[in-house]
Write the structure tokens for this entry.
Amino acid sequence: MNPFVHPVHLENDHVELRPLTMYDADDLREATRDGDLHTLWFTAIPNADGMATEIERRLALQRQGLMNPFAVINKQPGPLIGRAVGMTTYMNIDAAHHRVEIGSTWYRQSVQRTPLNTEAKRLLLAHAFDQLNCIAVEFRTHFFNHQSRRAIERLGAKLDGVLRSHQINTHALSAGALRDTCVYSIIASEWPNVRAHLDFQLSRPAPKDTRSC
């Protein structure tokens, strides 16, 4: 099997990325209700009723060699320990040229602005560069998704450019509007410095966020 889409289990002391299955649907239905994430017009997050369909869509793309989807499992003590709190993927896989995008990522609101995202990206980047021998890893997001853009930039990714009028929005609040897509990347020669940066950030005490429950 193409190693880019082969199911792989990644984890550290704080987060677990395990191959997405339909067994994660109940946790993910609850997760998308936390903050009504499906109402965000600048991203595509399924609502609770559409979660099973979204999981099957991702698994179908994996069978086609186009995506490797993960459930993001929280390992921090508290009511959400051991629960799926979001999804992420390797996508737009170009195995011939050792390139991949990390995307289609979302987390329930109560774990946003915590170290969980950085921990998950650290795992995905390490596997991409150290095991899959990627020459570049991409991140793409809506021009108006400022929270996502800041998170990508904090990882150390650099803006390659903006694809203007890249896609047609389908969300009810913006149906028919044209999306500008920001494309970021980390290349292999940058990975040692990015890795050191992420490890330093993760070694620092996590700031308290009174917005999280």
